[in-house]
User: Fold this.
Amino acid sequence: MKFSLDPFPKFSETALAALLNARILIFSVVVAKITLDRLYKYAMIVNPLGYDADGEPTLDILEYQSPWTSDQVHMSLNSYGAKGRQAYLSYLFYDCVFVLARTVPMLVICTWPYKKAPESARPGVWIPLLNLVTDLFENLLITVLIKIFPLRVQAIETFAAYVIQLKWLTFRVSIAIMFISLFVGIYYGFHGLLADSVVLEKDRQKKLASRNKVQEVLQNSAARRATSAATGRAQSVNKKDA
Assistant:
């Protein structure tokens, strides 16, 4: 059994074929940009204190605080107040749309540069898709916690914290694959151009050799005709002299 980084190669090929379309990519990028702006808007309602050192708004809410315990999850939701939790629900809706739109170019970048790479080295789309599923499931859990608040279910809170950690782990791995894919694309693109230039040079040499052979044949044929004509003239002169 051959080793492969991608346990679902056929699915990765199908996903790439379906998403490798300029209209789909442009549409997904535009949707991601629009929804990202909405995310910042609602995040500032959820946590009005979410500014960085330069005074710029940040997404400083539960999922970006990387909680590990149920108490951390509950304290964050409690600190947002009724208005903030309601805004969080709107945030989660736009976050689902953003994650779906963001994943489209991620899948293409993580797979397209590997088209010329050995099959065993292709990472495929399963890690970015795992990140997508984890992110959506995280949003579902947070929605449930907000809906039942102030009732506490520590099992759900703890599970949500672990899902958030898994989301960030798969996201970091996906980003790493994207950067590696860019270098892979450059590497195989360069070698592809080099291989094409070698093939073109071989074709040029073959054409030049063929042309030289044709010229050689024509020159030999002309030389034979000239020799034959000279021999014929010499024989004619000898007959007249005789």
The mean pLDDT is 81. Helices lie at 9-19, 22-46, 70-79, 81-111, 126-148, 154-241. The first helix runs from residue 9 to 19. Residues 9-196 form one domain.
